[in-house]
Design brief:
Layout lengths: L1 E13 L3 H10 L4 E4 L7 E9 L5 H9 L9 E11 H8 L3 E3 L3 E4 L11 E4 L12 H11 L7 E5 L5 H8 L4 E5 L3 H13 L6 E4 L10 E7 L2 H6 L1 H7 E13 L3 H8 L3 E8 L2 E8 L3
Parallel strand pairs: 6-7, 8-9, 8-11, 9-10, 11-12
Antiparallel strand pairs: 1-3, 1-4, 2-3, 5-6, 12-14, 13-14
Helix pairs in contact: 4-5
Amino acid sequence: MKNSDLNSVSVSCGCGLSDSVSEILEEFGASSVSVLVPNDDNRTTVTALYELDELNLELLFSNLELLRRDDDQFQIKQETLHGRDWVRESQNRFKPILINDKLWIMSPWHKSDSSVTETVTINPGLSFGTGHHPTTRMCIEFLTNHRLDDCEVVDFGCGSGILALSALKLGCRFAWGVDTDEDALDESADNADRNDMGFRFMAIHPSNLPSDICADVVLANLHLDALLELSETLKTLVYDDGWLVMSGILRSQMKQIKQEYEDAFDLDVNYEDNWVLVFGRKKTG
């Protein structure tokens, strides 16, 4: 992608549509997809980059327009970006991030800070998860605040594998990275090897997850519909007295999540901007 011309497609939408927009952009072969932090009006912008000659703009726009019925301020913008070093610009946008003075998240071209013992190295790609988005960051903050020694973790919807790898760096014994996207499974496995954690991590499609698997901590950084649809699966995956940690949720959606899960978990909530982290221990007996 270096020094090439690209198509940029940006969609301004309500936060509740950002996942649907991202999925459509990815389905059309985006080289990257980014989502801005929501503004005060609970709106965001989703931007995707495409190789110039590998995009059917008319078909993409017609698919995106189907979402307009749910958002009367929905806007789509396309522009051609000429002759820039996209690899270098991507690297410049991905800055190292320090979580609770315990864990650095960085890319392979960054240098580790020796004052912090643990570092997760992520190669930023198409899969979601670099630690900069509030939903990802809140999940990692939860991990840094809880003892994980000898725990097993399931990262459901693992993307880049950043949550599972963070848990491993913080003392978890073994982690499963679960995703329906084969590219995400490949990327998370590559990132596990990059962090010398391949022997303690398994990337797996949910259809192949052993039926008897249970974990001390289950992480699910997903969108609302997926969290509602997967509720019985996620409840079953958590040991009694284990933790379920959910994000990808807006403040306006929190009530639905709590109603769906409070029968099985004693739930608590953290906030950052318009985003919510819902977490709790599984009830026993």
